[in-house]
Amino acid sequence: MRRLLPLVLLAGCATGPSLESRLAATIGQSELQVVETFGVPNRTYDTGGLRFLQYEERRQVLHQLDPYWGGYPYGRFAPYPLASPVLLTRSCDITFALKEGRVQSFTTRGDDCR
Fold this sequence. Notes:
- The chain has 3 helices and 6 strands, in the order H-H-H-E-E-E-E-E-E.
- It is of the alpha+beta class.
- The chain has helices spanning 4-13, 19-24, 31-38; strands at residues 43-47, 50-63, 68-69, 78-79, 86-99, 102-109.
């Protein structure tokens, strides 16, 4: 049992495939397959024989600031009365480049691409 415990603990930390690996599976897929998987894109753009499909995701999260303030060398030493939560907008844009109706590449941009 002692030998299995580290494996069980590590298994509890396991996560699914990364965004990069999930998107890599779309290389070579048709435009129809991309739309079936991700839905209708927010934007499309055609130029130079390429078609670009852009998907946008935005979400808002409430971030609680640290209620204590202080700096080196004292660290956290006093409550800060103005530490109210802040509303942050997180985003992730995914753009697929298609040539002759097939995905050639993809790019991601944003602070919430995971």
